[in-house]
Specification:
Elements lengths: L10 E10 L2 E7 L9 E2 L2 E3 L6 H13 L3 E14 L6 E12 L14 E8 L9 H8 L10 E2 H4 L4
Parallel strand pairs: 1-6
Antiparallel strand pairs: 1-2, 1-4, 2-3, 2-7, 5-6, 5-8
The protein binds 8-OXO-2'-deoxyguanosine-5'-triphosphate and magnesium ion.
Length: about 160
Amino acid sequence: MATTAGGATPRVAVVVFVANGQTILLGRRRSSSGGCSPFALPGGHLEFGESFEECAMREVKEETGLDIEKTEYITVTNNLFLDKPKPSHYVTIFVRAVLADEQQEPQNLEPEKCEGWEWHSWDDLPRPLYGNLEKLAKTGFNPFTAHGMSIGELLQFP
Ligand SMILES: Nc1nc2c([nH]c(=O)n2[C@H]2C[C@H](O)[C@@H](COP(=O)(O)OP(=O)(O)OP(=O)(O)O)O2)c(=O)[nH]1
Ligand SMILES: [Mg+2]
C-alpha cells in the first residue's frame, strides 16, 4: 500500500537486542497518548551521517547508560504506524550487541519516556510487546540464534 499520509516521509530507526547471557533488555514505554505502553527495545532515530553502529551505541548509552560492543546487523522491518495520533512510517534496523562490561547495570535515563529497563528471557517475554517485536517473535525469530552480519560487511561507512 502506498500512501502519502499528509506528506510525511519514512524515517529510519535503529533498535538494539542487548544480549546478556540468555536475556535481552526491554523497557516499558510511557505512552503520551494513553495507549497500551508496550515493552520495547532501546533505540531511536538514525541521525544524519551516522552509521547503524554509532546510532545503536549512542541510543543505548542515552537511554540506559550502558556501553555496548560487537554490534551486528540482524534484521529489518518496514512498518506503517497508522494508529498513532501522528501516522508514521519506519524502516527499523534491528541489531544485536553485547555489554562492554558485563557487570554494568541499566539505568532509566529517560524516565519521561520509559518506566524502566529489565532483562527478559526471549522464551518468557512480557506483554504487550511493541508491534513489530511481537510480529518477529510470532515468526519464530530468535535474536540469539539469528545470523548476525558485521555492519562493516553490510555497509562501508561513510
Ligand atoms: N525504541 C524502540 N523503537 C522502535 C522499536 N521498534 C520499532 O520499530 N521502533 C521504531 C518506532 C519508534 O518510534 C522509532 C524510534 O524509536 P524511539 O521512539 O524510541 O525514538 P527516540 O525518542 O529514542 O529517538 P530520538 O528522537 O531520541 O532519536 O523506532 C522498538 O522495539 N523500540
Ligand atoms: Mg528510544
